[in-house]
Amino acid sequence: MDKFDRGVSEIRSSIRNAEALSDELLGTLATLKLKMISFRSHPDVEPHAGQKAFIRLQRAEQSLVDAANDLFRTHDELVNAAVRMDVEHPDYLEKTGASGLSDDVPISTKDMAGIYS
Question: The pTM is what?
Answer without folding.
Answer: 0.70
